[in-house]
Design a protein that fits this description.
The protein is an alpha+beta fold. It has four domains: about 35 residues, no CATH class; about 250 residues, no CATH class; about 50 residues; about 35 residues, no CATH class. The chain is about 40% helix and about 15% strand. It contains twelve helices and eleven strands. The strands form four sheets. The chain has a three-stranded antiparallel beta sheet. The chain has a three-stranded antiparallel beta sheet with strand order 4-3-8. A three-stranded antiparallel beta sheet has the order 5-6-7, with no helix packed on it.
């Protein structure tokens, strides 16, 4: 267990240097004790039930990942855009197996599914410390190894019964970038939108399973055959088994849908379950779908989910999706990549090229029109306010 050490300030010795460190770090170290910690949730269950079996969650993840990956990342060196910079070429072709868009789509998809995304930098062919390749790591195979201060000091990657530890290099640089969504109760892992929408996903999946079972059962709700013979007479065991087999063969299954049931000998059919109308089935399913879309930040109109018209039209909903969901995610990723790779490539900054996004073009045109009409601004001020570099 890591030893608690507190920074020495004015309460310590007068000649003791002040330690520039987090005062909360030792408590985190005490809590986790340098032990590797797996993601505190069933990632496989979330991926299978949420992404694999729910069309709404699947489409939300795909929409966000593909839209964010389609936003180009540009490299600026000392404030000047440089498309032929080694980092720009690395982002365009991060490894021999993937293009830049494919690699980014994997990162964004993992982030939406697990709440965590990991990228590993490998190689140093030129000996200048700059990586030659970038790879994405599957979130459920990565676990954080906290250091003595409580913050991540290494990452363990396990696959095929083997495990490898990726730690900091001699100069303190970490070859793994951990991108995560905010988690209010965890120090090292992010919170997945799938987990936030877990109950809605269960409701939506259960609705689909109910529909499937209803179709398999000749599209009829469950019920009972009531024997109404007089004088307390009951069916014999042989009669009961024969009736059961006859109903199973002639009434159950989709192939028997619509076949009439012939009842005789005092038999009567009594439905035992609520009808879809009683359960408000369709409305409940759409409500669950809207809740799933809400967790991901996708307008229901973009998914074809009927309900309250939050936006006037599809174009407005799409613009809100880009402004409120995609653009903040891309900017967050660009900032994380800058902080991670900035020490390997001196003087660089990575920014999203929002000018190349067709969905945002109407807003950019309106901004340029307003700036052009402002005669009191200089050209340099207009360019700066529009976010255009020198």
């Amino acid at each position: 267990m890591a030893k608690l050490r507190w920074p020495i300030g004015r309460r310590g010795r007068e000649d003791a240097p002040e330690i520039k460190d987090s005062r909360a770090g030792p408590l985190i170290a005490f809590s986790h004790g340098q032990r590797a910690r797996w993601t505190p949730r069933d990632y496989a269950h979330l991926a299978v039930e949420g992404f694999g079996k729910n069309a709404v969650a699947y489409r939300c993840v795909r929409m966000i990942a593909e839209a964010a990956a389609s936003t180009p990342l540009t490299v600026f060196v000392d404030g000047v855009r440089s498309d032929d910079h080694p980092l720009a070429r690395l982002l365009a072709k991060p490894n021999p197996e993937q293009s830049g868009a494919e690699w980014l789509e994997g990162l964004y998809g993992a982030l939406q599914t697990a709440g965590n995304a990991y990228a590993e930098a490998t190689g140093d062919a030129d000996g200048d410390g700059a990586p030659d390749e970038l790879w994405s790591l599957r979130p459920d195979r990565v676990k954080v190894v906290p250091g003595r201060a409580g913050w991540p000091d290494a990452y363990d990657y396990s696959a095929g019964g083997r495990s490898v530890r990726i730690g900091r290099q001699g100069d303190g640089w970490m070859p793994v970038m951990h991108l995560k969504l905010f988690h209010p109760t965890d120090d090292h892992y992010g919170f997945s939108p799938l987990e936030a929408a877990a109950f809605a996903i269960d409701v939506h999946n259960a609705s689909g399973a109910w529909n499937k079972a209803l179709l398999d059962n000749a599209a009829r709700p469950s019920g009972a055959l009531v024997y109404g013979a007089k004088d307390g007479e009951r069916l014999t065991g042989e009669q009961f088994e024969a009736l059961k087999a006859q109903v199973g063969e002639s009434q159950a299954g989709a192939a028997n849908a619509g076949r009439p049931m012939i009842l005789e000998g005092g038999l009567d059919w009594k439905p035992m379950s609520w009808t879809p109308a009683d359960m408000d089935f369709i409305a409940g399913k759409h409500a669950a779908a809207r809740e799933i879309a809400l967790a991901f930040g996708v307008a229901p109109q973009l998914l074809g989910i009927p309900g309250d018209a939050t936006y006037a039209n599809y174009r407005e909903a799409n613009a809100a999706f880009w402004r409120g969901t995609v653009v903040p995610l891309v900017r967050k990723t660009a900032g994380a990549l800058t902080g991670w790779l900035g020490s390997r490539f001196a003087g660089v900054r990575i920014e999203p090229d929002l000018e190349a996004v067709p969905a945002l073009q109407p807003e950019r045109d309106a901004l340029w029109a307003r700036l052009g009409a402002a005669s009191f601004l200089t050209d340099e001020e207009r360019r700066r306010m529009a976010g255009v570099g020198e």
